[in-house]
Amino acid sequence: GVDVAARPGTPVRAAGSGVVVHAGPVVDRGVVSLEHPGGVRTTYEPVLAEVSPGQVVRAGQVIGR
Predict the structure, then answer these.
(1) How far apart are CA 50 and CA 64, in angstroms?
(2) How far apart are CA 19 and CA 35, in angstroms?
(3) How far apart are CA 38 and CA 24, in angstroms?
(4) Cis omega (within 30 of 0) for bond into 46
(5) Alpha-carbon span 7 to 55, nearest angstrom
(6) Which residues sit opposite 22 in a β-bridge?
(7) Rounded distance, CA 25 to CA 15, Å?
(8) What ranges make up the beta strands (E) of the chain?
(9) How many CB atoms lie within 10 A of CB 48?
(10) pLDDT in tens, the chain (65 residues)
(11) pTM score, two decimals?
């Protein structure tokens, strides 16, 4: 995994194109998970989602804050 420090409200961008498989809380924090071609998955937390499950996103697209 990779940890990136950012201030609250900073846009979070998709590392690659894919489909949103989860967007919402897990226990006490917001989480967005993307499924990319080839079965690779990226997960972002903590993040307030701006996408919905099933949505297709492109690399670099804002997925939350």
Answers:
(1) 5
(2) 5
(3) 24
(4) yes
(5) 26
(6) 33
(7) 20
(8) 12-13, 18-26, 29-35, 41-44, 56-57, 62-64
(9) 15
(10) 788 889 999 999 999 999 999 999 999 999 999 999 999 999 999 999 999 999 999 999 999 99
(11) 0.93
